[in-house]
Write a structure and sequence with these properties.
1101 residues, Rossmann fold, Substrate Binding Domain Of Dnak, Chain:A, Domain 2, 8-stranded mixed β-sheet, 30 strands, globular
Amino acid sequence: MAGLTEQQQQAVNSIDRNVLVSAGAGSGKTHVLVERYIELLRCNPEMSVSNIVAVTYTRKAAAEMRTRLKAKIAQLQITPDLEERARWNQCYTEIDGARIVTIHSLCESILKAFPVDAAIDPQFEIVDDVGQSQLLRNAMDHAFREVIDDGAEELELLLQQNIEDLRFWMQQCMKSSTQFKEALKSIGELSEPKLIAYAEQRLQEFQKRSIESALCDKLFKRAFAYVEQNPWRDAANELERLRGVMVQLTHDLMSGAGEHDERWSKFCQIASIKVGRYGPKNGDANEIKGAMKEVQTIASDLTKKIPGALNEEDFKAFRLIVLFVRLAKRAMSHYEAEKRSLLKLDYNDLIELAVTALEREKSPAKEHYHQTVRAILVDEFQDTNVMQSRMIKLLASDTTNLFLIGDDKQSIYKFQGADVATFNSWKLEFQSADPDSILSLSQSFRSHPSVVGFINAMFENIMDDADEVYKARFEALTAARSEVDDSERVQVIVLPEYDSSGDALKAAELKAIEGQAVASWISTNVKNETPVSLKSGGVRPIQFGDFAVLVQRNQDFADIEIALAAQKIPYVTLGGRGFLERQEIYDVQNLLSFLAYPQDDHALIGILRSPMFGITDDILHLIASDRSGGRSLWQRLKDTVELRKPGYESIANAKVSLANWIKDAAVMPVSELLRRIVLSTSYDLVLMTMPNGHQRSRNLWKVVHLATENESLSCAEFADSLKLMREFKVKQSDAPLDTGDVVKLMTIHSSKGLEFPAVALPVLGTPATSKATKLKFHRDFGISINTSRDTEDDTKPSWYRLTHLLDSEFELAEKKRLLYVAMTRARDHLALFVQPQAKASQSFLKWIHESLQLESIDFEAATVHNLNSPGHSARFTVQCSVAPNLDREPALGRTEGGQKIDYSLIEALPAMQIEAPAVWADWSRVTPSNDVKPFGATVSGTFFHALMEHVTSVPTGLTREVIESLAFAQGDVVAHPDSLARLVSEGERLLAVFQDSKLSSLLKTSRRHFHEIPYLLLDDENSSTKRPDLLIEDESGKWIIVDYKTDKFQQEKMVQQAAKHHEQLTEYARDLNRLTGIEAETYIYFAEFGVLFDSTRRAVV
């Protein structure tokens, strides 16, 4: 097979056995999956696409794989062998219906086909995010009321614990119900005596593991060997006695003899040996004491972490665990009952019920898949969990060919239930059955060799070689790309530590400086036209759109956004859950809460302080401090307006607006109300003047659109739904923006699967372990609760301490993998922004410092340094970022001292006084101007293509609702309702013209037609993807290619316009003939005139 490396060829051709492939970043994993799929069909003529199941992690990945398969099969159709051509023709017609799906889609199809096996109604639907949040809260409230009414034992829990804490714990368990059930299953019977016995057993296991870990530690063995072989010459000295004790205790442990309690006691004795004040202070004695200190420190570090025994707090905690689990089960029972009554399932249900259906004795579902599925391919296998992998195992019979591909070093979704231990356990299972079943793809086609070398050396140092299943073992990449030039591709940019007076910079100032350093690095590279490589060969100057800034958390964006805006660098923030956490969404929520209930003082303060009104805190304080008569803030505000005090004009304007909106809220749908408010206040325009204003304005219109989708909700209900989605951590991304030639800001998790010519990694000092939660559950240790108040004097339960230690180890291992994912996104350039010193706590920064040995580098000048690891070496440059003068004029959105401006202190300006700043020159307008201009050719063309895609599949025509939804999808150019209405009217006009056209008649009488079918053409060096607008087989069997044009011109110039597009249509016809052997005619449909034009004959049809 041309175009495959030796490793890829091996993975593709090994269809005679089950295979697990460890595929490194950028190693062509999707390409191998497609080729493996084709190879299965090629080598098994009796097999069809219906006999293969391919499971992907996302719908996008499934769509990409299907598109690539269609292109590959289209190539295979070009063969003189008639029988083989017929076979591939059949595969091509079936590929659209092939089972290339996500794991949840596969489960849904199983349940739809075999509902009886899962004991569910086949008409079930997937509950949406808002609905699930409401069901969860109702279930928890029902459980609380039930416990109180029944006087159940769990009432003790409600009296002892904060209700909101309990609600948060129950939310954790119910949202991750699969993982919670697995954790409970690992414990067995849930009673206090059983929990005590289980905890004591596990505690002993971890103590044993700690002893073995120390004895196998390389540093421990080296230090102990020195202690053992170098007795002190003065046998009477206390130093020699302590050395002998240490040697004897260690020998006893190495022998493996003795009961566990005795062995643990000896290990603790080693940890307690202190040698600092014994023996003389000369060179020989210091060497012995140093070695003994190293042995003692390793043992001491472990004994400090691992508790010696359970304590009194444990027995309180076990009682609490029993009561909490009962309460959680009550809530889960009500949640399940409510879902059942509504015929709803959540995503956890899909997996669990599919497994239930397949595990039934003599399961028809299992029998069906065993008979029909010959091969199963699973992509991103490192991101599966135990339940999902169990389902894969149930689907496969003894004769099913399994192909699992993934990278344990890129397993970063623990928070979603993914477990790298699943990948590693299957790897061990495959290896024990057949060593040849484990394959690797280690050649990176993505990154420049300099970047690959740096990543290899870095992660050989960072990733340890331990065999724990929750860790990823380091495996080096090799670069497939050749060196383009000798320039260094990895930069370490050191941030300033001290200001001009020598005082340490404040945290806020450091964040601002780091943001400015990132912006300067980007602008300098663009100004210097730093080269980046083209995939097709050659180089070009770097552009803003080539940069990605990756951070760990959404809250890390703010300072970088401000710095980019200050330097006029275009950017887009692609946050994860950022939308619901944005201040503009809180402002809308506060407004709706107040309009529904004007006595809500907190909501009123929030909306008055927002940029919508911009009332100053001084005025608000004066109004709020007048508490006479028990009046609400709203009543006090109205009374204040009546006094007509000078300087209170803004309050008067706010009072008039709010009073009118309260009346409107009683009679108008939420979406219409919000539109009216935005238009009357120009709130979207006010937001545009703020940092990241483009995104803020789009988010405002997105929440209006969400209200449109929930027209049945009142103001209070819609505000509550926003709060619920935030409370239950529903993922809502920011409104989409143009991501063309702009810098991309995103979290590392969001960047998974993507690549960028240049990557910046700032904010590296974030602690690698998150703040400890009071409730922990995991299938490896069960469940634990912290009963302490987290003060220094409080004693934590020993069992909780142990589970927290384990959970922290899991998290640390995953954070190392997260750093690996971040660095492997870079194609040509990688920049690390580091502080000169790293804190003691584990973090990206600490690992980078230790690996690069930055403490030994002089940061004063830009220098080239070597990074070395046992098996690799690489070069990187160090550049010191100069601290800016903090007394200069503050950057946009920031005051002197680095503090953020409180925008509530800015008075809202009347709309006619707002002048567009110069930086708006290249921005898209959200609110329409008085001078209404036609939409651009791109918008009109894209919209018309979308209309035609739908109108050709709906014989009755499109409803206005469908047209509106297609128009809304055109982005920020139609964010304003007036612009949206204009585009909808334009669409309705073009559709009316189409209904009377020759093309409409042709479609109605055609045998079949295909809209925008993509195809891929490959040659020795290049590939190209094309997509003709419409392919028709008319009633006589003649094939026609149609290209849509929405150009506006005088109709008499149609022949000249058609000539411009003739070559493109000729290429389509030539390609179609090359791929399928079909001879097709080529037409152009001019949408403005409803004319179908024959481009070959140059005449109207």
